[in-house]
Amino acid sequence: MSVALTAFCTVGILAVIPGLSLLYREFLDRTGVAASALLTAAICACAFALWLVVGFFVPAVASSPLYLPAASLAALSGFLASLTVRDTTTHVAPALLYSLAWTALVYTPVAVIVLFPTSVGFSAATGPLDLGGALPVHVAVGSGALVVLTVARRWSVADRSHVRPRSWLLLSSGLVIWAGCIAGYVGLNLSIDSVVTPLIVTNTIVAPILAVLGWLIVQRIRSATTTAIGAIAGLVAGLVAIAAGSAYFTPLWAGVTGAAAGIAGSIFVSGWVRATHRHAWFIVGAHLLAAVVGLVMLGIFGTNSGFIFDGQIDLFVAQVVAIVLVGVWAAAISLLLWLMVRGIALRANERSASSDQGVGSSAS
Hints:
By secondary structure, the protein is an all-alpha fold. The protein has one domain: Ammonium transporter AmtB like domains (Ammonium transporter fold), CATH 1.10.3430. The chain is built from 13 helices and no strands. Helix 11 runs antiparallel to helix 13. It is globular, with a radius of gyration of 20 Å. It starts with a helix and ends with a helix.
């Protein structure tokens, strides 16, 4: 893997973060543009640096061409992990501490095992297939979000921004996310060739398009609307679903996988948002659910290795076992971390409430 390809992959993955940040301000982070951008930048920089430090002490990781791309995935996962905490408090410390601890205790061990299996004594041939980091990023983040949202179901931040991105800005951010994922998936394959690289690009185009259609069809049926946010939500679900298998699907099965993820994600998100009035459930639907769809479909329809191609269930079992193990680990650690930072958030919220009451008394 050349230096240029490494840089291309790393920058591509990092470019996804501002696009997602803009999208998720609509759903979650209601603290204002400047504060949101600064917190996101701090979380991503710290997560990136944390991976570099930890990876440096694992020789097989530090010498791998995936060292820097994995650092960019750490920044992405740290940002995504912080979102559910940012939905429960507007204060910086709880989100920053939770994100850093989560990156160290969840992303780092899972990424080392999945992306660098030989560095810890595992065989790459018998493990799960995951080109784009679906397990250490999306399954882990979504599992953590699931347990935090369940425990903190009565906590939410009131909408203080009163600003919504325009449709053209959301669509522009969607294109940035899309381009960044294409660059990232191509680079994570470690080489450019005349067969696999075009396949990755094609699948990363086909799957999101079908996911958008699936998401919007469900949205139209359930609410009689089709929105720009729905389109971008479907796009994200499709990109997450194809992350693990962009190099291993035929375009047909990539499209089927994208459509399944878009339909399932739209049904899940619309149902839970309607029931709980919390848009943070989007993280579970568009990340955990879409990643699970992609990983399971890869075990069934992956070219030359899926069940329908060779009649063996080994890959399918490996995919399912990996999903369960990562999901349980991420959920358990996320719950512990949330219980730890909840006290910080409570004290911060109490201080803010006292301050607001003091200002109100002075004004009266």
